[in-house]
Amino acid sequence: MKITDVEVLVTSPGRNFVTIRIRTDEGVYGIGDATLNGRELAVASYLRDHVAPCLIGRNPFQIEDIWQYLYRGAYWRRGPVTMTAIGAVDMALWDIKGKALNVPVYELLGGASRNGVMVYGHANGQSVGEAVEAVGRYLDMGYKAVRVQAGVPGLKGTYGVGRGELFYEPAGEGLPAEDAWSTEKYLATVPELFARVREEYGRDVHLLHDAHHRLTPIEAGRLGRELEPYALFWLEDAVPAEQQEAFRIVRQHTTTPLAVGEIFSTIHDATLLLRENLIDYLRMTVVHGGGITHLRTAAAYAAVHHVRTGCHGATDLSPVTMAAALHFDLSIPNFGIQEYMRHTAETDEVFPHAYTFADGYLHPGDAPGLGVDYRDDVAERFPYRRAYLPVSRLEDGTMFNW
Ligand code: CS2
Ligand code: MG
C-alpha cells in the first residue's frame, strides 16, 4: 500500500478545525485532527507545504518509522505546531491501518482494558449559584464526574464560564478579547464554590477544577489545601508548567490531586513532573501531543511513576481527536479520565462518528479504524474565519496568563 495524496482541510462549523486526509493506492484513506486553537493556519501550512510532499509514496503501515521521520527529520523538534502536525499524520495512519485490517484501532493497541471510558463534563455559571445548578444538570445526564467553574465577582469574564451549555468555545473572531484577572478575587471564590457543591450533591460525584495556569506555586499550595475538605478528583493547571520543579512547592503544601499537560507537546515537557511524582494526572492528548504513537510513550512513562492519564478533550479539539483518544483511553492500563466537552450540531454533521455516550461513559465503537469521517459537502458550507483565544491582563493592565 502506498500514500498517493495528502489533503489539508479547513472548515469552521462554529469554530475552526483543521483536518488531514491521507489517501492510498488501495482506496483506503485516514483522517487526523490538526487543530491548534488560534494558530490553525500555521499547522495547515506546516502540513501542506512541508510534510505532505515527504509522505507521498510511503507505506502508511509504517506508522512508527513515519513518526520518527517527521520528528527527527524536522531538525527543529517539539513545539505545538510541529507536534500537532505530526499528531494529525499519526492519527490518520492508525485510521488507515485499522480500516485496512478491518478492526477498530483499540484492537491494534492491545485491545480493551475496560468496558468504557469515564468522562467529565463542564458545569459552569456566572455565579456560584448558577454553577451549582449546572452540576445538577450534568448529574441528571448521568455524568459521574463534573468540572466546576464559576465567574469571579468583580471580574468581567473568566476562564471556563462560557457560551453554550454542553460545549465551551473561548476563541472569538477578530483580534483577541482582553479579560481582566485578579488572583485574590479568584482565590476568595473557589473554596466557597466547592463547599456549596459538596453540600448540595454529597461526596459521590467526582469534582474537578481548572485553575488554567493562573497561580504561583505558593498560591496553588494554598488553594489545594483549602480544597482538601471537598476531596477534588483533580486541580488542573494550577501553575504554568514550563518550570516543572515549581510543582515541588505545590506538592509540599497539599494532597489535592494535580493534573497538568494539555499544552505539552512531547513527553519531555513532563519527565521531571512524572519522575518526582509531582502530579497525579497527565493531560496530554493525541492532537497536540504527537498522536497515538507518542501518547503511548507518554502514558507508559507515566504508568511507571503512578501517574494516570486525563486527556484534554475541549470543544476546540475535533471529533477526530475525541475518537482517537477514546481508542487510546480504552486500551492503556493507567487510564484516569477523559474530558468530554461536546461539539455543536454543525460540527457533528461535518464529523460523523461512532463513539457514543451512556451513563457517564464514552465508548469509541467498533467501526474499523478510528470510527470518524469528514463530510466535504457539509464542511464547505463553513469557510475559515480567523479567531483568537482571549488574552488576560491583571486589573492594573499587566499582561498575564489566559
Ligand atoms: C481547557 C481548555 O478544557 C480545558 O481544560 O483548558 O478549554 C482550553 O482553554 C482550550 O482548549 C484552549 O483552546
Ligand atoms: Mg485545562
Automatic annotation (TrEMBL):
Signal peptide: none annotated. Keywords: Lyase. Residues 128-257 form the Mandelate racemase/muconate lactonizing enzyme C-terminal domain. InterPro entries: D-mannonate_dehydratase-like, DgoD-like, Enolase-like_C_sf, Enolase-like_N, Enolase_C-like, Mandel_Rmase/mucon_lact_enz_CS, Mandelate_racemase_C, Mandelate_racemase_N_dom. GO terms for molecular function: mannonate dehydratase activity. The keyword Lyase applies. Its EC number is 4.2.1.8. It is an enzyme of class 4 (lyase). The keyword Disulfide bond does not apply. This is D-mannonate dehydratase ManD. It comes from Nonomuraea salmonea.
